[in-house]
Amino acid sequence: MGHNFYDVPLHFKNSTNGSVFSFSTTFIFAIVPKHADIGSNGMAFVISPSNNFQAALPDGYLGLLNDVNMGNSSNHIVAVELDTFQDLEFKDIDDNHVGININILESIISAHAGYFHAGKNGTIKYLNLKSGDPMQVWAEYNGVNKQFNVTLYPIDVPKPDLPLLSLTLDLTSHA
Fold it and tell me: Max Cα separation, the chain?
């Protein structure tokens, strides 16, 4: 288990009215498991007011939470999980999914890993997160519309028009 945080804190809120700014970030990753058929707890892109997770538990807790602070609104944790293990305790849909989590490891919304191919009416093409293949993730928030989108796709295709996950969510109390 490891953490990697940006050194300089980013300010997500407008100091005048407290609203959350729009943001967009992207990263490329590859999960290469020791044993091809056995997943682990994956990884997460996390927005948090602190990078101190000393009390957090490893494994299913992704090094973010523990059994005491799970679900506390004071956590202010927003995570996009790329999960390769079905943890029934957290109601995971399968062992190969993407989810949006707020202060808890049970996803508010999740979907089997994949992307929408060929435009807005395209069909979904499923991906194997533990394939070892590089994939790209976009996490985007529209502060005006309160829309949080997550798009996952292989690096050899253009960014799909339709995100894998789309959630109307006001991050004001979470950021």
Answer: 51
Domains in the chain, ordered, with CATH?
A: 23-173 (2.60.120.200)
Predicted confidence (pLDDT) per residue in 89-135, tens digit = 667 788 888 999 887 777 889 999 999 987 667 789 999 999 999 99
- 10 Å CB burial of residue 107 (0-12, 13-18, 19+) is buried
User: SS in 3 state form for 10-63?
Assistant: CCCECCCCCCECCEEEEEEECCCCCCCCCCCCCEEEEECCCCCCCCCCCHHHCC
Whole-number Å distance between alpha carbons of 168 and 92: 21
pTM of the model: 0.81
User: What is the C-alpha to C-alpha distance for residues 138 and 153, in angstroms, rounded to an integer?
Assistant: 9
CB within 8 Å of 124: residues ≥ 6 apart: 114, 115, 116, 117
d(CA 57, CA 135): 27
